[in-house]
From TrEMBL, chain A:
A molecular function GO annotation: ABC-type transporter activity
CC per GO annotation: plasma membrane
Lineage, highest ranks first: Bacteria, Bacillati, Bacillota, Bacilli, Bacillales
Pfam families, A to Z: ABC2_membrane_2
Record has Transmembrane helix as a keyword: yes
Protein name: ABC transporter permease
TrEMBL record, chain B:
PANTHER family in UniProt: ABC TRANSPORTER, ABC TRANSPORTER, ATP-BINDING PROTEIN
SMART domains cross-referenced by the UniProt entry: AAA
PROSITE patterns found in the cross-reference section: ABC_TRANSPORTER_2
Protein's UniProt name: ABC transporter ATP-binding protein
Positions in coiled-coil regions: none
Organism whose genome encodes this protein: Kurthia sibirica
Domain ABC transporter: 2-232
Length: 278, 314
């Protein structure tokens, strides 16, 4: 396996798929999805195993599955990536790696891709379970694909942040705490800041029809808000009403997450090796 | 092959490496000797492009570590003093990974793996997981790893540390083979007699400064002007007259239980010969006159003022 001609990627994939942890995590992930699906069907059929499932009920299943997957990604990604470089440092393999002829970008990209490919495997392995939503109607392939696309974008960004902290911080545990901190910031604190910004605009007497860019900014970086607008498109109008900005949330989300990804990877690439020139 | 020019590394006001200058010719095995904290690992890290020098430069095969670090990495094989391995890879996969890290093709890698494994006597372990190898085998595998891309220069920082005597002998044999292959090797070790066996030249580092450099004999000569002369006397003869003779020459004398006198002498070989002639003219009961050859370790201990060799704090 040449690993897309990236030695680190090839090595990491080999190591990852020889580890029992990878398979146990996959099993845990699929079991979690399965428990939610089976639990949902049991609840909507009053534990009788037969009955009707209306399309609007099916949308609830899609919502549950999407948010369960999003939550798993938000929790698994920092755990997988925040130790990628610092782990090599702790195992005393980093110095050897850094004296090879690989470029900084090759090392960072290899590490990033190996983590991403594992999480993508989780997502793909879950497809047979999540695609059950197509049986009962109410969910369009577009919404389904969009939810997966933005889950992958979220994952790539969080993975890049994990790699950045892993490069900058010597200890994996500190790197992991920092990456989980960013994840909490994006999911919880951004919503709180959106609320604060909205309240401030109300208190300061900003007219209801005025633009509220800060509210839009904070809401746009929240993956939970984004998924809510994808699953229930009416929420997009709600965000527009609140912020009075006629600009799709997903577009802002894409821009913000792309910037975070590029900046994180650029810093990690610059910092993985010491600069020899003065 | 290697030119170290005014290399300095400062940590705040502390000089870890102080204006180090040195030239190592192609095919030379050069050993760095020094107590813990003398600056050996710091020097090696700078040469291996892992640490930015505060000032100065190292030019390896015409490439500067400061301005052409990426090119330098292609020319060196680096083995740190402490290192880990990827336990869940097999020995040949471990080497394959490093082969690809040096942009070698699969055909080149397939050809090179048996060569380097044969060299370090691990060919029968090629399909074993690295985790299953002993410490000594891991050390040799790491050495094989440094050879995968056939580098011109090997930088080996304490390669024998933590090995049992047998593993040390095996490693030394591998290093002797590499020397015969014409590799330029920079090595540091606390096992000084072993270093003396394989090194063409050594450099003594003390507090970041290179205080002596050259071949083993010249280092000993440079650093040990003080000698101990062992005088064997005829037994059952009064030694007092002989002791008095040396005291008259302003030399300190220690009487040993086995009929020997240890005379502390400072001077050239000619002066030593003169002393012997005068002792014989005085008809002293001398049947043996020899210099107590200090080994490298004694010299090292003397010049580094008794710094402990075995503690690893660097």
């Amino acid at each position: 396996m040449r690993g897309l001609n990236n030695p680190v990627l090839g090595k990491e994939l080999k190591l990852r798929f020889r580890s029992f942890k990878s398979f146990s995590a996959l099993l845990f992930y699929l079991l979690t999805l399965l428990i939610f699906v089976v639990g949902f069907f049991l609840i909507v059929t009053n534990f009788e195993g037969s009955g009707f499932i209306k399309p609007e009920i099916n949308v609830i299943l899609f919502t549950i599955l999407t948010f369960v997957q999003l939550a798993l990604i938000l929790f698994i990604t920092p755990g997988l990536t925040a130790g990628e470089i610092s782990g090599e440092r702790e195992k005393q393999t980093l110095n050897i790696l850094l004296t090879t002829a690989q470029t900084n970008w090759q090392i960072i990209f290899g590490k990033l891709m190996s983590s991403i490919s594992y999480i993508v495997l989780l997502l793909f392995a879950g497809l047979p379970i999540t695609s059950i939503v197509f049986i009962f109607g109410g969910v369009s392939p577009k919404e389904y694909l969009l939810s997966y696309t933005f889950m992958i974008i979220t994952m790539v960004t969080l993975a890049s942040v994990g790699i950045l902290f892993s490069t900058l911080l010597r200890k994996t545990v500190i790197s992991m705490i920092s990456t989980y901190g960013v994840m909490l910031f994006l999911t919880v604190f951004s919503a709180f800041f959106a609320f604060v910004a909205f309240s401030y605009s109300e208190i300061s007497g900003t007219l209801i029809e005025n633009n509220k860019p800060f509210v839009h900014f904070w809401l746009s970086m929240n993956p939970i808000v984004l998924m809510a607008t994808i699953i229930y498109p009416s929420n997009t109008d709600l965000v527009k009403e609140v912020t009075n900005i006629n600009w799709p949330t997903w577009a802002s989300y894409l821009i913000i997450y792309t910037i975070i990804t590029i900046v994180s990877l650029a810093i990690a690439t610059a910092k993985i090796r010491v600069k020899m020139t003065k | 092959m290697i030119e170290i020019n005014n290399l300095t590394k400062l940590y705040g006001s502390f000089k870890a490496v102080d204006n180090l200058s040195l030239t190592i010719d192609k095919g030379t095995v050069y050993g760095f000797v020094g107590a813990n904290g003398a600056g050996k690992t710091t020097t090696f890290n700078m040469i291996a492009t892992l640490l930015q020098p505060t000032s100065g430069d190292v030019v390896i095969a015409g490439k500067s570590i400061v301005n052409e670090s990426h090119e330098v990495r292609k020319k060196i094989g680096y083995m740190p003093d402490f290192f880990g391995v990827y336990d869940q890879l097999k020995a040949n996969e471990y080497l394959n990974f490093f082969g690809t890290s040096y942009q070698m093709t699969q055909a080149e890698i397939a050809k090179q793996i048996p060569v380097v494994l044969n060299l370090v006597n691990l060919i029968d372990k090629r399909y074993d997981y690295v985790d299953d190898l002993s410490r000594g085998m891991k050390q040799r595998l790491c050495l094989a790893r440094t050879l995968m891309h056939d580098p011109e220069v090997l930088i080996l920082d304490e390669p024998a540390s933590g090995l049992d005597p047998r593993a040390r002998v095996e490693l030394r044999d591998v290093l002797i083979s590499l020397k015969k292959m014409g590799k330029t090797i920079i090595i540091s070790s606390h096992i000084l007699p072993e270093l003396a066996e394989i090194c063409d030249e050594i450099g003594v580092l003390d507090n970041g400064k290179l205080i002596a450099s050259g071949n083993i004999a010249s280092i000993q000569q440079q650093l040990s002007a003080d000698k101990t002369l062992i005088i064997q006397l005829i037994s059952e003869v009064d030694h007092q007259e002989t002791i008095q003779f040396f005291k008259e020459q302003q030399l300190s004398v220690e009487r040993q239980a086995n009929g020997q006198l240890h005379v502390h002498f400072t001077g050239s070989e000619q002066q030593q010969q003169q002393l012997l002639l005068e002792a014989l003219r005085a008809n002293l009961p001398i049947i043996g006159f020899m210099e107590d050859k200090k080994n490298l370790e004694d010299v090292f201990m003397a010049i580094t003022k008794g710094g402990k060799l075995d503690e690893r704090t660097e």
